[in-house]
Amino acid sequence: MEHYKSCAGLNKQLSENLCDTLKNRVTYFHTRYHDVHNAYGRAAILLDGKEFVYFSWVETSHQENDISALHKEEPKLSYEEIIRKMKSKWDTDCTYCEMDFLNAVLQFRNMPVQVALESENYIVKILAVMDRRVGKRTLLQIATNEEYKKFPTWVRQFYELRLSSI
Q1: 26: phi > 0 → left, psi -120 to 50 → alpha, else beta; which?
Q2: Within 10 Å of residue 18's Cβ, how many Cβ atoms?
Q3: pTM above 0.85, yes or no
Q4: Burial of residue 45 (number of CB atoms within 10 Å: 0-12, 13-18, 19+)
Q5: What digits encode the pLDDT tens for the residues 60-95?
Q6: Residue 44's beta-bridge partner residues?
């Protein structure tokens, strides 16, 4: 994993990249509890001070349970195949932990916004659609093709939030 100085620094960088209409409305929260076993943590994206979506270490146990259950059903599957099979369930249910959020943030900050909008990672897509580099023409194109309406509710709400500002 790429190194970063602090969660506060990442949150600040994300906040600075927000589009003008969301600048004082959307905030990011990410922390790691280093003194706790396995340094569990929590992350969230807040709208007007309320959690819009959160990513918690609890979801790690849900992921592990899903992996274990599928491995019992189909023991010949590799770990990568199991993850690929579980992705749609996790995407739908937002079964992602703070490390998934952190990995998405680190990935996002090193990619062009157009590439991020096309990412298979919904967290990266969310970060991209709220980014100030996404222009009006791109937003109109997103609104016109309505592909975002196929996304899970937790993702779609960010697109609807951003599209309401055009």
Answers
A1: beta
A2: 19
A3: yes
A4: buried
A5: 889 999 999 999 999 999 999 999 999 999 999 999
A6: 29, 54
